[in-house]
Give the backbone structure.
Amino acid sequence: MAAFLSGLSDIVKGTPKHEAPEPLEGPVVATIVGGTILWFALFLVQLPFYGWFDDRGHTWWLWTCLAGGGLGFIGIWYVRRRDAAIRHTQAAQTVDPVDATHTVEATEAASGTPAAEPLRGSSPTPSAD
């Protein structure tokens, strides 16, 4: 019992004994789309029985399904943007450093200005005031 309480106090204090595992990445967009379709299907299946639900005070079942479908649209939008951002970040990280150097040199040659200009209004040497 003491060992359990000791482990519980570590959890409460926020000092875990193990590191958290990496998050699992799966077909997130497909999962959210499937859930959204399911919520709307449940709404449509229950809609013909609106009178029955209304007589028993259970119309919230219908509105819950409709809200789940509506929130699913927000979820689809969110996870699609998230996946696009992850792909964009991964593409930026996989750029070959040699190609990136050549690109910077080509840009400098074309524009005629070096990439690292001093800030305007700043003096490279401190003034003695």
About this structure: The mean pLDDT is 79. The CA atoms of residues 40 and 88 lie 32 Å apart.
